[in-house]
Write a structure and sequence with these properties.
The N and C termini lie far apart (42 Å). The protein is 64% helix and 0% strand. By secondary structure, it is an all-alpha fold. The site of zinc ion has 6 residues, from α2.
Length: 125
């Protein structure tokens, strides 16, 4: 019973989030929180552009979504997998090598997208 409720809660949250993201363009509406790291330092964090990317993805603009935040789009299936596993009450398979690989990928992405030269500037939103 708890698993079904948890699964329904996650599905309802994901659906509501998708509806809001579909109808609210983050580039035009100021309802989404701004990245404090970017505001304070001018640097792009690994999450910068992910809201815009999801908005574009929901509209079928895959290429624009990748330009906003390629890593967020690439990690979306993984996030979905974890959400489903958690909603089913399962412990997602997370070996240390997997976690450290993911941390490394995010760190490298964070550094590369802040290099103000081609082709790295393509990773900035
Ligand atoms: Zn950011």
């Amino acid at each position: 019973m708890h698993r079904r409720l948890r699964l329904l809660g996650i599905i309802a949250f994901a659906t509501a989030s998708a509806v809001v993201l579909f109808f609210c363009d983050p580039t035009r509406l100021g309802i989404f929180p701004r990245c404090k790291l970017h505001q304070w330092t001018g640097l792009w964090c690994p999450g910068c552009g992910s809201t815009r990317a999801l908005h574009q993805l929901l509209h079928g603009n895959v290429d624009v979504a990748f330009r906003c935040n390629a890593l967020a789009i690439l990690l979306l299936p993984l996030a979905g997998y974890f959400a489903i596993q958690v909603s089913l009450g399962r412990q997602p398979a997370m070996k240390p090598v997997f976690i450290w690989t993911l941390v490394g990928i995010i760190a490298v992405f964070s550094v590369l997208r802040n290099i103000p030269a081609y082709p790295f500037n393509l990773l900035a939103p």
